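I'll show an entry:

:::
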Amino acid sequence: MGDLSDFERGQIVGWRLAGASAIKTAALLVSKVMSAYTNHRGTTSVKRDSGRKSTLTERDRRIVRRIV
């Protein structure tokens, strides 16, 4: 899951304010992470293929490797 979102942080605070122990809160988080992993085969929240696209072609990469 990577870093926690503001919503997830709010859930943790809510659980603690509702009287859940730290162990119960941790168990809820572990359960949430494991269900995300089994349902989606991963726990990352990072977008894939985000960021700047490469301007180098495969030919450009070969030339750079040869020069280096």
User: Anything to note?
Assistant: The chain has one domain: 1-48. The chain has a mean pLDDT of 79.
